């Protein structure tokens, strides 16, 4: 059973986002970004309590800006999804997840070392240039179950 209900249009959106955010970090980096996208769709907490679909996650606006920089800046996100990334997106949607993004709801690419917290949430690990953060214990149990 899939971690979240999805349509082919969701696979396409997610594949485009994974590529736009992490193509330079290879297959593993794109899968980690996919983990965060799916985690946000299953999380029923924090900034993500009203998100239920992949489309909701991709186009979420926080503080007047899209949550994912790639939506705002365009670049690769607005190119056609490729089969390679669609296969990766399906893997995430179905079941694949791994540390450091296994339960992560946030990631970013800092100009320096990864800080120990990001918006009060603990650092779980780094892959190449991206730092990953999961919810503080007890604040978002749904992300650990989905």
Automatic annotation (TrEMBL):
Entry-linked Pfam families: Hydrolase_2
Gene3D superfamilies to which the protein is assigned, alphabetical: Cell wall hydrolase SleB, domain 1
Domain Cell wall hydrolase SleB as annotated: residue spans: 24-133
MF term (GO), any: hydrolase activity
InterPro entries per record: Cell_wall_hydrolase_SleB, SleB_dom1
Protein keywords: Hydrolase
Protein's UniProt name: Cell wall hydrolase
Protein species of origin: Oceanobacillus indicireducens
Organism classification: Bacteria, Bacillati, Bacillota, Bacilli, Bacillales
């Amino acid at each position: 059973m899939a971690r979240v209900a999805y349509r082919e249009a969701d696979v396409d959106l997610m594949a485009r986002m994974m590529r736009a955010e992490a193509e330079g970090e290879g297959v593993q980096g794109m899968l980690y970004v996919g983990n965060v996208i799916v985690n946000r769709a299953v999380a029923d907490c924090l900034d993500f309590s009203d998100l239920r679909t992949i489309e909701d996650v991709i186009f979420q606006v926080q503080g007047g800006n899209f949550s994912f920089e790639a939506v705002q800046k365009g670049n690769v996100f607005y190119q056609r999804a490729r089969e390679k990334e669609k296969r990766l997106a399906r893997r995430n949607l179905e079941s694949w997840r791994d540390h450091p993004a296994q339960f992560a709801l946030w990631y970013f690419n800092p100009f320096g070392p990864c800080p120990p917290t990001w918006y009060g949430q603990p650092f779980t690990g780094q892959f190449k240039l991206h730092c990953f953060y999961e919810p503080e214990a007890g604040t978002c149990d749904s992300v650990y179950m989905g």
